[in-house]
């Protein structure tokens, strides 16, 4: 967390803002407390995007999708106002480290961490897809590692595939290196698109880089390499389904694969962030206005 700057809000809705968590492309993320004292993460849109109807509609879509999927595998929505002058969304705050940050700390994750992590992400995808939502931006930055397992965040470009839902935009959206070929080309998306992103995310966890940068063949665990390669097939119809992945990972789990135990350096960072939430940094005070220079009358020599 970082200290609030003088121009940062001190309240958003009924939430008291206490610190900065980070900045996204469209919004600033703050840490705060709800009216009842619950820790919250508040995402508030940047002013330049709030002036654009297209971005406001995208934020409104994100709020709706996040409400639909919130629960065991993603932070719950506590409050939101997508129609505010600066639209905002308040969700449950989770002391966590993103998968991208964990790989940054370790370089790559060992198989005994990747397998149970993969099982947790597959359970999350099954839950999300069960609501009729496809995430479409599954990547290491959007997987949070918590003491209770992985969580998925950022449903800003999620597609609602339920009958009667508003169709997603036709312009390609996602993250290069992690989005499926059909998504990148602007074609029809489906749960198989998330399966591709899942494979790319696991490849990153194993090698420290996305599969587009090579390295899948360097994965030493045969089972992981086979699993990931199947997810990365260009033809969506030939990829394993989420139930297929769950069954394959259940077989691994039955072979005495341990539950997810995060490396000590990651758990230490999660603990540090939990302590920060208990005692956020003091806001940066405003810069004092300069004192006026006293006027001095000068008498020029004649």
Please, could you describe this protein's structure?
The protein has 302 residues and is an alpha+beta fold. The chain folds into 2 domains: 11-93, Phosphorylase Kinase, domain 1, CATH 3.30.200.20; 97-254, Transferase(Phosphotransferase), domain 1, CATH 1.10.510. The chain has helices at residues 47-50, 53-69, 99-106, 111-130, 181-184, 191-207, 222-231, 242-254, 264-278; strands at residues 11-12, 15-23, 27-33, 39-45, 77-81, 88-92, 97-98, 133-134, 143-146, 149-152, 159-160. Strands 1-2-3-4-6-5 form a 6-stranded antiparallel β-sheet. The protein has a 3-stranded antiparallel β-sheet with strand order 7-9-10. The chain has a two-stranded antiparallel sheet with strand order 8-11. Pfam families: Pkinase. Keywords: ATP-binding, Kinase, Nucleotide-binding, Serine/threonine-protein kinase, Transferase.
Helix and strand string, N-terminal first? EEEEHHEEEHHEEEEHHHHH
Average per-residue pLDDT, rounded, comes to 90
| Known CATH architecture of the largest domain | Orthogonal Bundle
Oligomer: single chain
Ends distance: 64 Å
Please identify the structural class as seen in this structure: alpha+beta
Instruction: Please tell me what the overall shape is.
Output: elongated
Q: Write down the CATH topology of the largest domain.
A: Transferase(Phosphotransferase), domain 1
In helices, the fraction of residues equals 25-40%
Spatial order of strands in the largest sheet: 1-2-3-4-6-5
The biggest beta sheet is recorded as: 6 strands, antiparallel
Give the count of helical stretches. 9
């Amino acid at each position: 967390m970082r200290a609030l700057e003088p121009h940062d809000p001190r309240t958003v809705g009924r939430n008291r803002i206490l610190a900065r968590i980070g900045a996204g492309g469209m919004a600033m993320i703050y840490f705060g407390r709800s009216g009842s004292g619950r820790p919250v993460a508040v995402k508030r849109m940047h002013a330049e995007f709030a002036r654009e109807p297209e971005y406001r509609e995208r934020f409104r879509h994100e709020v709706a999708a996040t409400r639909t999927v919130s629960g065991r595998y993603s932070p719950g929505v506590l409050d939101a106002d997508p129609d505010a002058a600066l639209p905002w969304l308040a969700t449950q705050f989770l002391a966590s480290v993103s998968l991208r940050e964990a790989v940054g700390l370790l370089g790559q994750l060992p198989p005994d961490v990747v397998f149970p992590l993969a099982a947790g992400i597959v359970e999350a995808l099954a839950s999300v897809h069960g609501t009729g939502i496809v995430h479409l931006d599954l990547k290491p930055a959007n997987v949070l590692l918590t003491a209770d397992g992985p969580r998925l965040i950022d449903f800003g470009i999620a597609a609602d595939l339920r009958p009667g839902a508003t169709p997603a935009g036709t312009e390609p959206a996602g993250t290069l290196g992690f989005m499926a070929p059909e998504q990148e080309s602007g074609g029809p998306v489906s749960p198989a698109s998330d399966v591709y992103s899942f494979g790319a995310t696991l490849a990153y966890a194993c090698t420290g880089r996305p599969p587009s940068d090579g390295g899948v063949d360097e994965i030493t665990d045969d089972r992981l390499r086979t699993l990931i390669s199947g997810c990365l097939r260009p033809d969506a119809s030939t990829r394993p389904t989420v139930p297929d992945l769950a069954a394959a990972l259940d077989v691994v789990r039955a072979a005495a694969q341990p539950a997810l135990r995060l490396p000590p350096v990651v758990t230490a960072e999660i603990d540090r962030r939990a302590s920060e939430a208990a005692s956020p940094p003091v806001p940066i005070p405003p810069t004092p206005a300069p004192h006026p220079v006293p006027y001095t009358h000068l008498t020029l020599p004649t």
